[in-house]
Amino acid sequence: MLGAFVGLRIAEAAGLRFDDVDFDGAMVYPQRQWPDKPLETKASYNPLPIPAELVDMLETSAARSGTNLVCDELCKPVSPWVIGWNLRGIKDEIPGLPEGAASRTSAITTPPCCSARAPTSRRFRPEFATEAP
Questions:
Q1: Could you tell me the pLDDT band of residue 11, with boundaries at 50, 70 and 90?
Q2: Which of 2, 65, 91, 130 has the fewest CB atoms within 10 Å, counting from its CB?
């Protein structure tokens, strides 16, 4: 859901950690991409707003897992390849999913150890993202 609601690339979503999220301010601050590489562009470091529903899901997940935001059912970090592979496997089951949603420019992920599953997709970062300091 990080790609659907926030606009992160798959590698950016896979690299997120819980300390990259401001739960009170409903913002995500990307700092790295998978496995621990610098982000691709300066704009990738821009803080991005996240909806309240996703904040609630992430807070619930934070209480149950380690440091990485995107994890498998055992709360182990998940690679972009695994995220993309799983997305391609379910994309036809998601109504309204935009063309190309399973590409490497979008990520649909479920927060770790979380039972909520309502993925949608958004291919690009929101235009209202703030500029990096």
A1: very high
A2: 130
